[in-house]
Amino acid sequence: MPDDRTEGGSGSEQREDLAYVCDRLDYIRTALDTHGPERTVPLEGLLTALEGGADLTEPLKLLHEAVLAAGDAAGIRSRTRGLNPRGVGPAMPDEWVLLCPIDRCSRYEWPDGEEAPPCRISGQGLRRDRL
């Protein structure tokens, strides 16, 4: 099945891609940097576009291609994210979830204390929301 995100994709697909980048930011940076400092340019371009509120279509595409070139077989568009084994449901802690503070990605975390951890991209505290 072709990946229509190479041609723009939907906002929900971009949110999923961005959630993956947010969750694996350190891994992606290390993987790209291993292949040369100039290889992190697509990641920095995405972070700049995100910070500026720009369209993320092209920066996500370039980062996906860079991660593939760095040897990651799925890039940033893995379809196995978010799946749970049969009979095992996702965690449901106290009906609260921590979400992207700038509402640009679909990543979430379950709260494990009073303080919300910071977003790995923006540095702002994750936004607490009731399920």
Main features:
131 residues; 3 strands; mainly alpha; 3-stranded antiparallel β-sheet; 37% helix
Structural overview:
The chain has 131 residues and is mostly helical. 37% of the residues lie in helices and 8% in strands. It has helices spanning 11-23, 25-34, 41-52, 57-69; strands at 96-99, 108-109, 127-130. Strand 1 and strand 2 form a beta hairpin. It is globular and about 40 Å long.
Any chance you could write out the topology, listing elements then pairs?
Layout: H1 11-23, H2 25-34, H3 41-52, H4 57-69, E1 96-99, E2 108-109, E3 127-130
Antiparallel strand pairs: 1-2, 1-3
Helix pairs in contact: 3-4
Gist of the model:
The chain is mainly α and 131 residues long.
Shape: globular
What is the share of helical residues? 25-40%
**Rg value:** 15 Å
Backbone structural class: mainly alpha
Strand content: 5-15%
Q: Between the first and last Cα atoms, what is the distance in angstroms?
A: 33 Å
- Element string (H = helix, E = strand): HHHHEEE
Overall pLDDT metric: 80
Strand order of the largest sheet: 2-1-3
Q: How many β strands by DSSP?
A: 3
**Tally of contiguous helical segments:** 4
**Unreliably modeled segments:** 1-8, 88-94
> Main beta sheet: strand number and arrangement?
3 strands, antiparallel
